[in-house]
Amino acid sequence: MACMKLGSKSEMFNHYGQSWLCSYGLPCDVIIEIGDISFYLHKFPLISRSKVLVDLMKELSSDNEKSVLELHDLPGGAKAFLLVAKFCYGVKIELTAMNVVGLRCAAEYLEMSENYGEGNLIMQTENFLNHVFGYWADTLKALKTCEEVLPYAEELHITSRCIHSLVLKVADQSCVNLPVSSQSVALSSEDAEVWNGISLTPKTSGEDSWFEDVSSLSLPLYKRFMQGASARHMKPKRIAGSLVHYAKKHIPLLGSQPSSQNGNSSAFKSSLSTPSEADQRNLIEEIVELMPNEKGTAPTKFLLACLRTAMALYASSSCCASLEKRIGAQLDEADVEDLLIPNIGYSMETLHDIDCVQRMLDHFMIVEHDVADSASNDIDEERRIVGGSQPHSPMAKVANLIDCYLAEVAPDVNVKLSNFHSLAAVIPDHARTLDDGIYRAIDIYIKNHSWLTDSEKEQICRLVNCQKLSLEASTHAAQNERLPLRVVVQVLFFEQLKLRTSVAGWFFSSDNVENSQNLNANLALVRNDGNTPPPNPVLAFDNMKGRVAELEKECLSMKQDLEKMMKSKLSWNMIFKKLGCKFVPKPSNATKVSKPCGKARISPASTAQVEEKAMEVK
């Protein structure tokens, strides 16, 4: 730590209760009162250094044996005046980063300039301050002491100079003449957590080692520091990192309070006590205001924690809206657990704040739409198709996130159908590679809202694309008694359509393979010079045999599903009669779908016919 020694005389000040006496060899002729402390001193050493004291002495009456002066408004108080008095008497004193600011302000207040003695206190403290500004740790300590004499420190620009020095060090570390003191980074032996001789405390290093140091500043000083860092065009990622660290340290709901803090003076540890709710509310509003606007600068998990805390502390609506907007821009990085924000509104109808998630999702869609508009129509269409099929695209991640969120809030009986439907409907169809997630959420919702009408169930089931259900989900839906019959028929129809498509694909593939093999065999016979062996038809037949076997397994599985459905529900004639549909048998094996008079006429190929065709191929 930087220090500077002044004076040469030995100590001559003695402390008695609330008084300080100077053993100068002569009886004291002036009493200086500052607060509850009294200083019994001599006029001549004081007036030889201070213009203010000279003027005050002239105003005193000479009738009294001892003159009494009151300096209650002296910056730095009795602590600073004791050093001033020692300096006037030539007693040895030591300037440090912890006392130089108060002493500089007191010297300015008493007008201790060069006109009242060469090498006076104003010049000495000013020179030492310039020396302090060359070190990170000392500048930080000096800045903290500015709060004790803030009005005077502002007039002398000490606060701004300290902040400028700190900002310059973290924003431009290439300045070798402004080194960052390692003392601020390393922890003392008392602060470090050690087990069996091994340090368990992680050490901060590199360009982010200053996060912990500046987090010990008060909010007004820290805010000015961050504003200065932003003006110096510091990277938004580093600014956000410091804000996150500061918020977690001073807001209990965001992170636990650290067990130890940097600094040697206990005067600043009192500020680290748990702040009131009003202080926390003000702090989180300031943190959000200082946060850079660039996407991805702050972790989504932290922003969601800030939003929960802001709502719990009843922060301003602008603060909450700003957090929702930031989260929405990077919603694809969120977790389901973090989205389960408790509903603390006045109505509190639902357990979780679904409206908040709706607003964040809407903003995400706006951002995605803006990204799409920046490209041409062809590129945008390709991005939508390819991006929708990729499970790691932002839209696909958000689709899966919302489906999982809906499944979590679905058991809440107070969740309205309109809220559930509007949240699920925002996700476009191309964003889901499979609709198993939304089907699961809808099934849970219908199960816990048994009073829904058939029309309401059909309305919510329209969110599911039956063609994009997996085999497991389709099997579950076909046996789900809670679903409307129309939905069950749709599921079975598309499963049968998939089966027919698969069968037709196998037959088409087998015909092509057989024709290709015959053609290759004929060409080989024509061009065979006696050395090239003809193609082996046995291998092709074995491959076809394996494919037909797989096809038989699919047919058998579908047949078993249909039999289960027949046992658990009404007969097929009753089902289609209720839905306004009826079977029309056809002599051919092909399936035709027509819609006369607005009603579906379905003539599916029977499973027996499929099996018979498969046996013929085999």
TrEMBL record:
InterPro entries registered for this protein in UniProt: BTB/POZ_dom, NPH3/RPT2-like, NPH3_dom, SKP1/BTB/POZ_sf
Family: Belongs to the NPH3 family.
Topology with respect to the bilayer: Peripheral membrane protein
Location, primary (coarse class): membrane
Species the sequence originates in: Cajanus cajan (Pigeon pea)
Localization annotation: Endomembrane system
Annotated Gene Ontology cellular component terms: endomembrane system
BTB domain segment(s): 28-97
Keyword Coiled coil on entry: yes
GO biological process: protein ubiquitination
Keyword Acetylation listed: no
Disordered: annotated segments: 255-277
Start and end residues of each NPH3 domain: 208-498
Coiled coil: 541-568
Extent of Low complexity compositional bias: 255-266
Pathway assigned in UniProt: Protein modification; protein ubiquitination
Keyword terms: Coiled coil, Ubl conjugation pathway
Biased amino acid composition, Polar residues: 267-277
Name of the protein this chain belongs to: BTB/POZ domain-containing protein At1g30440 family
Domain of life: Eukaryota
